[in-house]
TrEMBL record:
InterPro entries given in the database record: Glyco_hydro/deAcase_b/a-brl, NODB_dom, Polysacc_deacetylase_ArnD
Spans annotated as Disordered: 1-23, 43-82
Entry protein name: Polysaccharide deacetylase family protein
GO molecular function: hydrolase activity, acting on carbon-nitrogen (but not peptide) bonds
Ranges for domain NodB homology: 159-341
A GO biological-process term: carbohydrate metabolic process
Species assigned in the record: Streptomyces finlayi
Biased composition (Basic and acidic residues): 1-12
């Protein structure tokens, strides 16, 4: 190895350093690096064959050893790159690869612990720029062009879905642990009338990276309320959540998914940017589909609730097991809603 390094250094002296290629070329570099390491070993073998003596350096004007000659095949990038940069790059690649392997092992262990049928698929990197979201056709209100968009699916081509949980009645500590250990993102839409029994539970949720959003103070049917009543329900919950969690939500979901023009105007007036509804709903024992094809689609928002055996045929972990089986079987990953909206 030392020999290769020396030769490269002397080559550098002669040709001068060039920039290390970046981007896709790096993959080529890794391959080249591997080839170089292999040829380095061969050179070492030759070296030991000569009794450890290194070949004499070339006299001025004389050609160096064959390894230094520019090879016809392959790009000349490897010889041109500073050896330190190459080894640093190789180290970085190895570290990233090791991190990926460790994360995958952790996922397998967590899936086994929480009795998931399959290991959840990993979501792709979030987009650099969030997609432009518009109101779903048929969900518009009169004069709603400048109001927060109402949608059930996020525009994306990725095989991802989003998991959202509403209300806040059931406060199962196992859910917090399960979602953290499985590293499954989800968003919570909270109603004060059930959350107020234990704001601490949701503060723990927030500390685990979950975004908490507005689902009104008392979970009433918005279109049946006056403007002033709706304002109290929506903006009152904005204030309440700001006080309890230190942050005003930007996402709002009207109870039962029902709203009118006033609902959206009021929501906008107190800081709401978007109104995500849902394309399907998860229960511990089944899915309820809202789309005609009874299937998942890229960007679909899945609704579920903070409920337990009192309301459901199962616990919140049972519900997660069921919905994750559906999502994974269909080849989807769960992504973080706030990375896209
Ligand atoms: Zn609700």
């Amino acid at each position: 190895m030392q020999l290769v390094r020396q030769k490269e250094e002397s080559a550098m002296k002669r040709h001068g350093p060039r920039r290390l290629a970046r981007g896709p070329v790096c993959t080529t570099l890794v391959t080249l690096l591997a080839a170089a390491l292999a040829s380095g070993c061969a050179a070492e073998g030759t070296d030991s064959a000569t009794g450890g003596k290194r070949p004499a350096p070339p006299a001025p004007g004389q050609e160096g050893p064959p390894l230094l000659k520019p090879r016809q095949e392959g790009p000349p990038l490897l010889k041109a790159a500073p050896p330190d940069a190459l080894s640093a790059y190789a180290g970085e690649v190895r570290r990233k690869q090791a991190a990926r392997v460790a994360a995958a092992r952790k996922q397998v262990a967590a899936a086994k612990k929480w009795r998931l049928a399959k290991v959840p698929l990993a979501a792709p990197e979030p987009p650099a720029v969030k997609p432009r979201i518009t109101t779903r056709k048929g969900f518009e209100v009169t004069g709603g062009e400048t109001l927060p968009p109402v949608f059930t699916t996020v525009p994306t081509k990725e095989r991802i879905v989003f998991l959202t949980m509403d209300d806040g009645a059931e406060k199962d500590p196992a859910l917090l642990r399960m979602m953290t250990e499985l590293d499954i993102p989800y968003s919570a839409f909270l109603s004060d009338y059930v959350v107020k029994e234990d704001y601490g539970y949701f503060r723990k949720m927030k500390a685990r990276g979950v975004t908490l959003s507005n689902h009104t103070l008392n979970h009433r049917y918005m279109p049946g309320l006056s403007y002033a009543e709706q304002k109290r329900e929506i903006c009152g919950q904005q204030d309440r959540m700001a006080k309890e969690f230190g942050k005003r939500p930007t996402l709002f979901r009207p109870p039962y998914g029902n709203y009118n023009g006033d609902t959206l105007r009021i929501a906008k007036s107190c800081g709401i940017k978007a109104v995500p509804l849902w394309a399907s709903e998860a229960f511990p024992d089944h899915m309820e589909w809202r789309e005609w094809d009874r299937d998942l689609h890229p960007g679909d928002i899945i609704l579920t609730h903070f409920r337990g055996p009192g309301d459901w045929k199962g616990s919140m972990p049972d519900m997660i097991r069921r919905v994750m089986k559906t999502v994974t079987d269909k080849g989807y990953a769960v992504a973080r809603l706030e990375d896209y909206v």
